[in-house]
Amino acid sequence: MQPTIIDSVRIFDGESTTGHGSVEFADGVITRVTTGPAPGPPASAQVVDGTGMTLLPGLIDAHTHVFGVPDNLRLALAFGVTTELDMFMGPPEATRALCDLARDRDDLADMRSAGLLASAQGGYPGNAIPTLPTVAGPEEADAFVAARQAEGAHFIKIMVDDGANHGPALPALGPATVTALVDAARRRGLLTVAHACALWSAQLALDSGVDFLTHLPLEAALDQAFADRAAAGGRAVIPTLAMLEVSTSHESPGTGVARSLAGDPRIAAFLPDDVRDAIATGCEGLCVEHPLPEHHFEYALSSVARLHRAGVPLLAGTDANQMPQHACPIVHGAGLHAELALLVAAGLSPAQALAAATSVPAAHFGLDDRGLIAPGRRADLLLVSGDPTTDITATRSIEAIWRGGVRFDREAHRAHTASPAAP
Ligand SMILES: [Zn+2]
Predict the structure, then answer these.
(1) pTM > 0.85
(2) How many Å apart are CA 145 and CA 209, to the nearest integer?
(3) Ligand 1 centre and the CA of 143: distance in Å?
């Protein structure tokens, strides 16, 4: 296949800016990265002039829910998200079919999935999903993990939540059961991710030895001892700040970084009308449905700052979860650009936030073929105007997206999805 060369471009390789240079790829794989003066391109190459632009690895959203809808993965790719880590969907046959589709189709983001999550009998969210298998106690942990592995789950998601953010408190997985799930997954070579959005559940998740915590408490910030123990234990955190910001919008309805995407023409012009309306007005349902007066987004920002200073790896994840008939303000693809801005607001440098959406999730989830601009990696690439390492919102000024070396037709996407009235 004819090689493509992106020339005279600023390169953020997933970890840092390596300077200006050129990146060549062919047959879906990066073949050469040159900084400084580039050798003349081969006559057969297709050359893209990257003057004034920055080339990044394709973005990885480390917390989404695809819910079986291929269009969600198409929307993700339209905003430069080339890989999504799905944190719960079913049924297993549908999950496997969608993972296969995402692997093979050039116009969808690729995905990995936890499949069905582990939760308590009569607990959240199984109380509303009767078919969801539950875990009655530590003695059932290994069989649960084995069943998910047999279904093709790429990692194990564990619900550590009593549902109190959604209504009356329900039974939750206890410490012995969560620890048994983590141990079973580790024996079987699977990573574990714990949903924890309260102080008690974050502490339980940390004590259990889970690899990743996702979400953050909203009733108080995590303290220094927590951050230090998480760092020493090699844990990583997927904060989902955009979703938490929206979930506390009783504090400032209709405002905030995540809501403001609906008014950013760089984002809004590429959204279907109903999705743009959902960003502006939709309600969050999956993590915090009924925020309490003591819930404040500032606590989540403080926790991120403290975890970051302590050296805990942070992964950008949105919790995008729109379904038909469920207007969710955190949408696939676009939402990650809000998450990046919120990570910067919490104290990460723009380059550190970009690493949280590229090299860091790739390294921590074993996605060794992507997440970096380096020879041999997949040509999952995002070309933007300006310099997102100085202005993080420059990630929204998308010039081109390649997935596995295939350029995504963004204008066709815009013509297909957006109404003429879109900004
Ligand atoms: Zn989620």
Answers:
(1) yes
(2) 16
(3) 23
